[in-house]
Design goal:
The protein has helices spanning 128-133, 185-190, 195-206, 226-229, 236-244, 265-268, 274-277; strands at 10-12, 25-28, 34-39, 52-54, 69-73, 78-87, 93-104, 140-144, 178-181, 209-214, 219-220, 248-249, 254-257, 269-272. It is an alpha+beta fold and 281 residues long. The chain is globular, with a radius of gyration of 19 Å.
Length: 281
């Protein structure tokens, strides 16, 4: 988990660009156009195939190759998660994407198909408003480079195994693994790190971080700024970065939230038994 130097830094300012691997989540209303959902991969029966769903016309998928797009229907209570959105015509029509799934927003958030672990995309997704408020009341979702080829609750499927990319599965985390920061609130307060980072660290200590996807360095999954910029609003992640004094990295045109520094991750992370996530221990 930590062989690459600790958690990956978060960035702000890259919404819609090729490095945007974040998760935009949109909320639909009765006036939004209707789209017919079409899965393009022949992997079996796609849970979203042929469904007609209202999607805001301005909604755009994330700019990276994962091209995530999630729509929450506020009337029906269904969350529709799409992966690798390829086309979304203006005003409605057929919305093409590689694969996806759906889950209830008033349920357990499981059983969708747009992430490796088959969680709903909204599960554990960090929002700018939460970080700005100074309090995050849920576990964080994280991505890891590869997993053990297996999974534990709450995951229902594995992702990219380490063996599939020429590494050993030994000591790799199963999909669904919950990590916890073993620091008290007093210890976190005493750290010489910015307040925004202390907010993240408290969430990691109170609720933990759950592995939900593979393919990148260990990193926190957060909402794409497209949920603001696609509608002509100011980028709240950028505003937060400026307020926090996060440094600007000119080569990538992004602000950087330094996650790795200031914490002894190797000493302060532990694995939580899966029965804890199940409420059985």
């Amino acid at each position: 988990m930590l062989s690459s130097g600790g958690p990956e830094n978060m960035t702000a300012g890259g919404a819609g660009k090729p490095a945007d691997y974040h998760r935009p989540i949109y909320f639909s209303g009765s006036s939004d156009p209707v789209f017919t959902l079409h899965c393009t991969e022949a992997w079996g029966v796609c849970p979203l195939e042929g469904l007609q769903v209202r999607v805001p016309d301005a909604a755009r998928p994330a700019g990276g190759t994962d091209a995530h797009l999630t729509v929450i229907d506020q009337v029906s209570g269904w969350e529709y998660d799409m992966w690798q959105v390829a086309s979304k015509p203006v005003g409605g029509g057929t919305l093409n994407f590689s694969w996806g799934g759906k889950t209830r927003v008033d349920g357990d958030g499981l059983g969708s198909g747009a992430t490796a672990a088959e969680y709903g995309t909204a599960a554990g997704n960090l929002r700018a408003e939460e970080l700005a408020s100074g309090q995050i009341n849920h576990a964080l979702m994280i991505s890891v480079p590869c997993d053990s080829g297996s999974y534990v609750y709450p995951a229902t499927k594995g992702g990219q195994s380490c063996a599939s990319v020429g590494q050993s599965n030994t000591n790799a985390p199963p999909e669904g693994t919950r990590f916890q920061l073993t620091l008290s609130d007093t210890q976190i307060t005493a750290l010489n790190v910015p307040d925004w980072k202390k907010t993240l660290l408290r969430a990691m200590a109170h609720y933990g971080m759950i592995v939900g996807d593979t393919g990148s360095r260990m990193g926190i999954i957060h909402e794409s700024s497209l949920v603001y910029t696609a509608f002509g609003q100011a980028d709240r992640w950028v505003s937060l970065a400026k307020q926090a004094g996060a440094p600007f990295w000119a080569p990538d045109d992004v602000y950087v939230f330094n996650i790795a520094d200031g914490v002894d991750w190797a000493h302060s992370l532990r694995v939580v038994a899966p029965c804890a996530s199940q409420g059985r221990c």
